[in-house]
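Open question from group meeting: does this chain pack into something compact, or does most of it stay loose? Before anyone orders reagents, we agreed to write out a predicted structure and look at it together. Recording both the input and the output here so the notebook holds the full record.
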Amino acid sequence: MLMRFGLRLIGYTAPVRRMVELARMGEDAGFDSVWFPHDTFMHNTWVLTSAVATQTRRIEMGSVGTNPYTTDPSEIATYLATLDELSGGRALLGLGLHTTEMVQWTGIDAGNYMQRTREATTLIRALLRGEHAEFQGQEFCWSEQCYLRFDPLRREVPIYISAFGPDYLALSGEIGDGSLPMLTPPESAPYMVEHIRRGAAAAHRPMDRFVISGCAWLSLSETRQAAAAAMKKMVAYFGPYLEEPALNMVGLSVRDMLPLKERVTAGDYEGAWSLVTEPMLRIGITGTPEDVIRRIEILHKQGINEINLGGPLGPDPAEAIRLMGSKVIPYFR
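Structure tokens returned:
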């Protein structure tokens, strides 16, 4: 499969209207998909994807990490079907979690996330197929009245699983149309791909059309210094949430990230940025167009067939998207 390119826009990148404009720029630059993280207490993904649907013509759009705890599968299915109709068949869903902590902030126990993701996927697909989704599971108990009261544009909308850890990654390969592993750092790609493929093999599923949409942090600029300065903010805020095995792949540990978390928790963001070291910058893809091309080439050879680029994007997100469209994406096409 040729390398696909996803653009992942988070609330820290820009205000809401500007994020919609950046999505439109991404379409013009040649990105295949645009994604919005569905993080607890952040800008609402469903509003953003709906706005993008009305402002674009070609690009696919979806969520990353829509969790089946704070949002019920019945709501997720109606959102997905409505977005698909609004966009003319361009909707995607990233279902699952990249961390349990954000869900647990609300007092919800997210310990059974694998079973809950499995059952939610089953229910959403049943609803899209027009079935009465009567169901008695470990996590959900639905009556015969659980069915859509309208006809979806498509009965099969791609569901990607947002996953972490060996078994959850394997589940994404078993039940998903695609997988959304966090490649933080990019060196973790072989680890992610191995477990996704393990799950697909156990379910006897072919991988030729399966999309491994590796979510990486990008900071792209004409100069490495400017790119590094923008990446420091991303690493300081989100780095402490990363898993030990992933951090180990670039010589770091969770313990190294604790001082950053302490500064962020205290509201001292500039202090946290100052603690970001050169090795920590390797958690993302940072540098010039040539640097970015080299990193993506390696990831493609390791089994990533869509690079899903988010984070700061660069010191100027619009310029980073332009550079992707003029120098990086054409290289792979």
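Observations to bring back to the group:
The longest helix spans residues 113-128.
The domain at 4-332 is CATH 3.20.20.30 (TIM Barrel).
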